């Protein structure tokens, strides 16, 4: 089936308020599962509010945003009635608010691997974020207020103003939300291993398909390998795989220029200094494998020996496809790590595309070109993750 036709069919049928969905004419179905984050049970670095001006998007401390603590996630699978022993966790990009673009991706992987695909939301994304952050009218007023504070900011939009302001106020939120996401994924993976998920058998194999910042998170999980959960896991990355210092988050869909400049400056020049001056922070970053994995992914020079030792144990379990015109995760950044992070292919689609929308819904000849490119990328991903 054509990509655009499948995209529209899945979009029409998907309703995250329902616990179970069927897609007319297909064996693949979707179930929603509840999840409770154990954030308060984990020793997170305390967020220190900066002196930067900001517009108070939420008005609430992060650990009191209830949507981020209790939420549900979709799983696409073939409704055979039997339990599965293999799961693919799909991780999305930064500042995403809807699963719609990923439904076709997950559907293809289910159809071509036979494995269920779990679409798991990163902290403060998808329905883990307050509905306010996706409200066009209300966010437009926050855009105006941010302009009053800072003047005209390149790439500031109602889509990215919430993330932009939150990271400008406190760039530690990037680490804290990533840490929470990693802990949530560890909990989910433990449920799968222990047979505590209704769709899966005990000792279920967990692999990842990860896009954009989701690839960054997945790499950290495989490098850190908490509780040996990912000892045999495979990771296929799409438009991802770069070190933090090689990324460019400036986009109308992700964050404005000021927010990214502050984020980059903090993690490349102040983050480790803060850690060494804070006993709790130092212990979390350098006293745990997951913390060291995060530091090692900030730049190629960080904890290089640790990263190389861990990569030696992964040995062929990572694969990736980058796009030539990707401005957020430039292909040059991923190409330079070809020998470090496994196989890499760079593609350049014969139609207008971008990092945020690699498979646009187009008409005429371009539509068939999108179909072919989509099947090429996801066919390779499915083959790797089988």
Strand order of the main beta sheet, please?
A: 1-2-3-5-4-6-7-8-9
- CA radius of gyration is 20 Å
CATH architecture: 3-Layer(aba) Sandwich
**Strand pairing plus helix content: what structural class?**
alpha/beta
Briefly note the CATH topology name: Rossmann fold
Strand-residue proportion: 15-25%
Helix content: 40-55%
Instruction: Provide mean pLDDT, rounded.
Output: 92
Number of strands: 9
Task: Summarize the entry for a quick read.
The protein is an alpha/beta fold. The chain is built from 14 helices and nine strands.
Description:
- With 386 residues, the protein is of the alpha/beta class.
- The protein has a single domain (3-385), classed as Alpha/Beta hydrolase fold, catalytic domain (Rossmann fold, 3-Layer(aba) Sandwich).
- The protein is 41% helix and 15% strand.
- It contains 14 helices and 9 strands.
- It has helices at residues 3-13, 66-69, 100-113, 136-150, 161-169, 172-194, 213-224, 257-269, 271-276, 279-286, 289-296, 304-314, 331-335, 365-385; strands spanning 20-22, 28-36, 70-78, 84-91, 117-119, 200-211, 235-238, 318-323, 343-347.
- It has a 9-stranded mixed sheet, with helices on both faces.
- Helix 6 (172-194) packs across helix 7 and helix 7 crosses helix 11.
- The protein is globular.
- The mean pLDDT is 92.
């Amino acid at each position: 089936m054509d990509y655009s036709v499948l995209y529209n069919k899945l979009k029409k049928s998907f309703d995250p308020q329902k616990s179970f969905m069927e897609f007319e004419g297909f064996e693949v179905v979707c179930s929603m599962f509840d999840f409770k984050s154990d954030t308060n049970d984990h020793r997170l670095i305390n967020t220190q509010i900066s002196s930067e001006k900001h517009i108070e998007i939420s008005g609430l401390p992060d650990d009191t945003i209830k949507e981020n603590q209790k939420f549900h996630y979709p799983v696409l699978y073939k409704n055979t009635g039997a339990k599965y022993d293999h799961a693919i966790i799909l991780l999305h990009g930064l500042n995403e608010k809807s699963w719609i673009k990923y439904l076709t991706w997950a559907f293809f992987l289910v159809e071509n691997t036979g494995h269920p695909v779990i679409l798991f939301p990163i902290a403060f994304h998808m329905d883990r974020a307050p509905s306010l952050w996706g409200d066009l009218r209300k966010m437009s007023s926050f855009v105006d207020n941010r302009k009053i504070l800072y003047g005209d900011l390149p790439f500031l939009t109602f889509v990215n103003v919430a993330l932009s302001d939150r990271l400008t106020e406190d760039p530690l939120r990037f680490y804290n939300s990533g840490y929470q996401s990693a802990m949530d994924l560890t909990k989910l993976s433990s449920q799968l291993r222990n047979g505590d998920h209704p769709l899966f058998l005990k000792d279920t194999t967990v692999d990842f398909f990860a896009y954009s910042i989701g690839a960054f998170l997945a790499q950290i999980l495989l490098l850190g390998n908490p509780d040996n959960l990912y000892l045999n896991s495979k990771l296929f990355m799409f438009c991802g795989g770069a070190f933090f210092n090689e990324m460019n988050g400036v986009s109308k869909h992700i964050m404005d220029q000021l927010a990214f400049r502050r984020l980059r400056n903090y993690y490349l020049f102040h983050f480790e200094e803060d850690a060494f001056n804070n006993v709790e922070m130092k212990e979390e970053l350098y006293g745990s494998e997951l913390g060291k994995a995060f530091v090692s992914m900030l730049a190629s020079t960080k904890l290089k020996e640790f990263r190389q030792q861990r990569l030696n144990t992964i040995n062929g379990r990572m694969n990736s496809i980058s796009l030539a015109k990707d401005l957020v995760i430039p292909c040059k950044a991923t190409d330079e790590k070809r020998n470090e992070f496994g196989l890499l292919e760079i593609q350049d689609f014969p139609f207008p595309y971008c990092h945020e929308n690699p498979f646009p819904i187009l008409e005429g000849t371009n539509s068939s070109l999108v179909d072919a490119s989509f099947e090429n990328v996801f066919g390779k991903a499915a083959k790797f993750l089988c």
